[in-house]
Write a structure and sequence with these properties.
Chains A, B: It holds the Pfam family HTH_Crp_2. Chains A, B: This is XRE family transcriptional regulator. Chains A, B: GO terms for molecular function: DNA binding. Chains A, B: It comes from Lysinibacillus macroides. The structure is a homodimer. The radius of gyration of chain A is 20 Å and the shape is elongated. Chain A is α+β, with helices and mostly antiparallel strands. A five-stranded antiparallel beta sheet of chain A has the order 1-2-9-4-7. In chain A, strands 3-8-5-6 form a four-stranded antiparallel beta sheet. In chain A, about 40% of the residues lie in helices and about 25% in strands. The model of chain A has no long low-confidence stretch (mean pLDDT about 95). The first copy, chain A, has two domains: about 1-120, Jelly Rolls (Sandwich), CATH 2.60.120; about 145-215, Orthogonal Bundle (Arc Repressor Mutant, subunit A), CATH 1.10.10.10. The interface of A and B includes residues 88, 119 and 220 of A. The structure holds a DNA duplex.
Chain lengths: ~220, ~220
DNA sequence: ACAATAATGTGAGATATCTCATATTTTTAA
DNA sequence: TTAAAAATATGAGATATCTCACATTATTGT
């Protein structure tokens, strides 16, 4: 991670105004920082003391289980807060966050924690963010319980395909969908067999959009 | 649902002071209300316009999937907020909440919504509540992905047993744990076979506390 | 350019979990 | 009090998903 200054800093501040998140002047407490692709923003098990607001980029939220399994809990896409729960709740150990692309964030030091925690403007925004997060996790949780991979994968292919082509890394997606690598490949093969997608060098091409949507929509 | 007045009302207000949740006088906006056992506090798919704070009681948070499966998402135990996400986010349809026992709540009408949404004291408490909710759901989600029923059931038996006896309704718990009734019974039978619990008329008695803890603790 | 590492792909056999059918017991409501 | 509804129980066969072993093909760092 490195901190941007001068022109780079002011350009981001202009492009992503954040003043209206707070009812006090946040600038003295704020840095613009950049994480390179693959860098860890939070280490699993650490006690972070910085609140980040991601402006540009994409990251993965991870946790490792006692049995060694790793869950890719979700993809984080700008804009969003990171480390907000630790701000509210002192000394809460955190999950791991690793960037997928170059990522630009505002970092806000906890030195203005007192100010933040009495700022209704900021707190209201945080409530909205947290409410949405809770709602999303609940949705994911219940969907995972109620539907087999066939449906969840169909939904995920719809979501992540670009120009009708799905080309995510299997190793990553099986962690995200919470199934084994083997099983993911089975179901992909099944989609090929059913002519829903076609495997080419460029990726899996969606050929039966309708059927895919049908499988996905059973979820909601 | 009925609203308590007079002596009943003031007794609850005394027993569960709530003034320090707000920086303005909430009393004019507040009712004390009681739901009978089995009553629905929120109907699934409705657009609630009341914020509740549960003082006493226990309820179940439900959702029904398109495929007809019902998920018992979680048990709600006092104290907690209900309808808070709908307060923040207009017109968000909600999940169903049904009481398990007689339940006493404060209800706060949305007529003071404007006041609530600029009240840092209240918002901060809401942030804490929502943050915890998000954290819990995330934990549940990842655990369900990473462990078979054997471990999750062991953890649940530990949690819900009273005086070493587990006696929840199977029909409910299988929805809660997200497995079929049949499978729940299989794993319970397996616990009996392994002499971890013993089935008697009074319920399933825990006889190998250590082994149960071992299975449960693999989760975390 | 090459060795190390990561990602892909596949088979085989095990296990976790589901669906459905059906019988019995308990609880609930009229 | 009795009939209906809910909860418990169990078998049998299917399906979803896992683990492990191993081979092949990219990707990456030096």
């Amino acid at each position: 991670m490195h901190i941007l200054t001068g022109r780079a800093r002011s350009d981001y501040l202009k492009k992503y105004p954040i003043d209206d998140f707070f009812s006090f002047d946040i600038q003295p407490y704020l840095e613009v920082c950049q994480f390179d692709k693959g860098e860890w923003i939070f280490q699993e098990g650490s006690f972070p003391d910085t609140l980040y607001y991601m402006l540009e980029g994409k990251a993965k939220l991870y946790m490792t289980h006692k049995n060694g399994k790793v869950s890719l809990i979700e993809y984080l896409k700008a804009p969003l807060f990171m480390g907000e729960i630790e701000l509210l709740n002192e000394a809460r150990y955190t999950k791991g966050i690793q960037t997928v692309t170059k990522t630009i964030c505002y970092s806000i030091t906890q030195s203005c924690k007192e100010k933040l925690l009495v700022d209704a403007l900021f707190l209201r925004r945080l409530c909205l963010f947290l409410g949405e997060k809770a709602t999303n996790m609940t949705a994911k949780y219940t969907q995972n319980q109620a539907y087999p991979l066939e449906n969840r994968l169909a939904a995920f292919i719809q979501l992540s395909a670009e120009q009708g082509i799905y080309k995510e890394k299997h190793t990553e997606i099986c962690e995200y969908l919470g199934v084994s690598y083997r099983h993911l490949l089975y179901v992909l093969a099944q989609f090929c067999e059913e002519q829903i997608v076609e495997k080419r060098k460029t990726g899996y091409h969606i050929i039966d959009k309708k059927r895919l949507a049908q499988l996905a929509q059973e979820i909601q």
